[in-house]
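The record is passed on directly below:
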Amino acid sequence: MTERVCNVLFLCTGNSARSIIAECLLTALGGARFRAFSAGSHPGGVVNPLVLAHLHALHVNTEGARSKSWDEFAGPEAPKLDFVFTVCDDAAKEVCPMWPGQPMRAHWGLPDPAKAQGTEAEQGLAFADCFRMLYQRISIFVSLPFDRLSKLSLQKHLDEIGQTKDAAVTRQSA
């Protein structure tokens, strides 16, 4: 599996925040081994401006990032997918299309930072937390020894990655 490029699709309902972050991070961290995509079951049509600002501030390339429907990946002209990851609870509960080639799937759910309430700083913190968790999970994913794992073992690793909790310090009230 490591000799060819693996196509990875990140799904979320609106395709405006988490799935876009994951797509951009995998593009940055995966090198030439992975080709990342994102889509939504009910895309909003716009990438959340806070996502773009956060990614730009961290020097993550967002070129080509756009909110789009998962229908783009279900047709005959779509790239053959190797992995499909849901990154929000809503997408995990929805009935997903049958992807050609039966890609491996896992749920890597995270709270939606776009729904964060509070001050601008508190909202920014929600985006930073989402970014950190996706960075951690994608870093683990790209470091897996794909060529040495059976399909069953790989699926176990993918599921475990989705259970990875934030290793950052626990926040306390000041």
Remarks:
- The radius of gyration is 16 Å.
